[in-house]
Amino acid sequence: MLVVGLTGGIASGKSTVSRLIQERHHIPLIDLDLLARQVVEPGTTTLIALVKAFGAEILQPDGTLNRPALGRIAFGDESKRKELNKITHSAIRKRMVWLLIGYWLRGTRIVVVDTPLLVEAGLWKWCGEAVLVWCSAEDQLKRMLLRDTDKGLTEEDARSRLAAQWDLNKKKNYADVVLDNSKPLRPHEAASNPGTKDEDSLEEQVQRLVARWRRQTASVTGVAKWLVAWLVPPVGLLMGYLFAKRREWEFSVRLRTAGEDAKAE
Ligand SMILES: CC(C)(COP(=O)(O)OP(=O)(O)OC[C@H]1O[C@@H](n2cnc3c(N)ncnc32)[C@H](O)[C@@H]1O)[C@@H](O)C(=O)NCCC(=O)NCCS
Ligand SMILES: Nc1ncnc2c1ncn2[C@@H]1O[C@H](COP(=O)(O)OP(=O)(O)OP(=O)(O)O)[C@@H](O)[C@H]1O
């Protein structure tokens, strides 16, 4: 099974790409932002742990999580954010692994995992391919404000959310594929933009990417690997482990060349 890690920064266009992959190309998708919401539903041990760590002011009167309030605490202070990650990430990963196992049992060929923290949390090594949805920090800020101002997001909130994540140029070093989302979304919009071609639009880039995944997984070696991993799970696990180790080594060479530190959070 080809597990693709899809990442980017806040408001860089991950959900837009996810929607295209899921709805237009019918590839299953695991959204870690969504799992992050499920693990903090009322009554969960994760929500209880969060209240213990950050106080009852992170709850709404009805007992659900007050997301903007927790966001303000976590995005404004690195140590608080680390604490939040420590509490939530293991529960999110557990859910993700169960979902992956489910897809694998059903014989799925390609699954996309959408997560903003693919690089920061070190998940990139465990993916067959890491895809980064890139745009400039100015575009991220502009798009975030356009999207979220009516949900109460101020420019200060937006800047602190942006500062809470790695710069997207730094994340490029960890990506196998970079989707340039500084251009228009659709081909016809690209045509009316001076200096931009139809094939530069996000939709066309995603179309080409998915076509390659399909060719790759339908090739003789792709099918043979998938079949062996599916029929003999221990061999599949070993193949996955060796692949991750090779990937870690290849990227550490690449990162050293780029002057980056391979260690994530
Ligand atoms: C702090 C919370 C409550 C704020 O909720 P809110 O609804 O306002 O934002 P939402 O969850 O939609 O996240 C919006 C974006 O913020 C960024 N973000 C979220 N969590 C983090 C984090 N821990 N570190 C850096 N950026 C983050 C991501 O780009 C995400 O797409 C929420 O983001 C959360 O529970 N975060 C911890 C879990 C987590 O790390 N999720 C990311 C996927 S693993
Ligand atoms: N190429 C583009 N041109 C203009 N607007 C865009 C483009 N791509 C995405 N957008 C808009 O930018 C906003 C952010 O995109 P999206 O929600 O896909 O980002 P995201 O990376 O999933 O964000 P988050 O991490 O906050 O969930 C949305 O309102 C989306 O419609």
Automatic annotation (TrEMBL):
How is this protein named in the record?
A: CoaE-domain-containing protein
Residue ranges of the TM segments: 223-244
For this UniProt record, give its keywords in alphabetical order, as a comma-separated list.
ATP-binding, Membrane, Nucleotide-binding, Transmembrane, Transmembrane helix
List the Pfam families hit by this protein, alphabetically: CoaE
Cited Gene3D superfamilies? P-loop containing nucleotide triphosphate hydrolases (3.40.50.300)
Ranges in a coiled coil: none
MF GO annotations = ATP binding; dephospho-CoA kinase activity
The processes (GO biological process) annotated in the record are: coenzyme A biosynthetic process
